[in-house]
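Aim 2 progress update. The chain analyzed this quarter is reproduced below.
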Amino acid sequence: MTLLNADRIYMMVSETETGRGYADLSLIVRPDMRRHQALDLVLEFKYLSLEELNQNGAEIRAGSREDWLKHPRVQAKLAEASAQAERYGDTLRNRYGLSHITCFAVVALGLERLVYQCNNYGKKSSDQPPGTTG
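Predicted structure tokens:
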């Protein structure tokens, strides 16, 4: 949430048109702020309902991060969001002349939990945001 209030550093654009779809949220470092070590970011969000997961809220909260990352529907949504974020990132790199963009694929499991995957300069890792249990 801190990044969302950093409008002096970032140009924040929701639903950025990329020519091949719309990125959910793009945070591009302003040209006059490039001297700072801020990252250009693309976030692509997906949602899985409790019904799609055949779970209730307590079951979602009780499952470990590792369990949810192994769940086939979660894996499919993360893969879908990650592929979209990468495509959008490529377009934005070219549009703004950027050397790289860090892309996040974020999947909400109902309103109970978030699972994300980050592609940071070609390195992928999965985790859940700080402050969640798992």
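Residues 121-134 have pLDDT under 50 and may be disordered. Residues 3-127 form a domain with the Trna Endonuclease; Chain: A, domain 1 fold (CATH 3.40.1350). These observations will guide the mutagenesis experiments scheduled for the next reporting period.
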